[in-house]
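G., the chain you wanted modeled:
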Amino acid sequence: MRFLLSTLCIAVLLAAGPVQGLTNGVRLTLDVSSDLLGENFHDDEAVSLGPNAAGTMIDFTAYGVPERVGIDALMVYSNRVVFSGDVDFYTNAEYHADEDLLDLNVTGGTFTAFWNGDYAGIPRAADVDAACFVTPGGQFLFSIDITTELPGAGTVTDDDVIRWNGAFSKAYDGQTNLSIPPAADIDGLYLGTNNVLYFSLDTTATINGYTGQDEDVWAYDIGSAIVTLAVDYDSLRTGADVVGLDKATDSDSDWLTDFEEITGLDEPGITIPGTATPVDPEGSTSNPNDNDTDDDGASDGEEAVAGTNPRDGSDLLKITQIDRGSLTNLVAWSTKTNRTYILEATTNLVTTQFAPVETSIVPVPGSTNTVRKHLTGNTNVAVYRVRVQTSP
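Predicted structure as tokens:
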């Protein structure tokens, strides 16, 4: 836990344990509308999904993609979302084929062509239905939905993984390397930094004794060449198929994804680990490689939870004043009106745990400071702390 110390007071941003990296923060797209964690999502949205929350990361229709287009390949780097549609479509009179990859600049709201599959040599009848970066914004792996011939790679099928580094080559044979049954098609890909290739299939399949549905994710350990079932998405029970797959990156382990820090946009599935409390930058940007951009002692993720500015060292959750009386103390701290707080106290910072003085404290609208009385009686309170109230 991160503390902001003084001799008589502590301001604590969170109560969720030490800062740690993300677990299970993924992005995915679906082939049909479906519910995840109680929310409904469409095939033209990139969904941010964590163990305790889900929400729309990108609504592609807001950027001009027609509603009839489903998103079936998804890759994220910097402030860019690279994607492919499941059908040909137009934006602003510009034609995009389903074998192309488009680059969406989410801060600028503009499309550029990331890769033209037709020019590269993919037949017009084929659809790029899965893709993942090998190097961010550069070399990538992909799969297509039919059996065809590709220059340099020869015959490829819908369960093969193809590499593009300026030319085509077959990276992994779906049946020989990945043990995929002939009837199954790869329709989701992600290459992890742990030397594991994650993939999803378009149908139920049994591999190495594991049976997975079309919404589940498989893992191919490149080093051991073993395939296992990685993720079983039990919540997808409406016939939806995972067709786009990507994982959130948190380079500086501050709870915010690199994408959130660069763009200021929220990935709703990202919460304080172990809780349902969102970590939303609310438009504030920060350094994805420095967990405390303004060096004020609070991590950028903690500032997102507290609603403070990660680029302003004077804007942070802190106790600003303590007035001690014989039986009553007054405690004041800086507040944001869209947060709820807990005030706690202890008589001995070393041997005595903090106990709540008051919970569910909602600041007065428009106020920047909150004051509370603490009836201490004859108890010698040594230290106070205040923290943002989190959701379990």
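The mean pLDDT is 90.

Shout if anything looks off.
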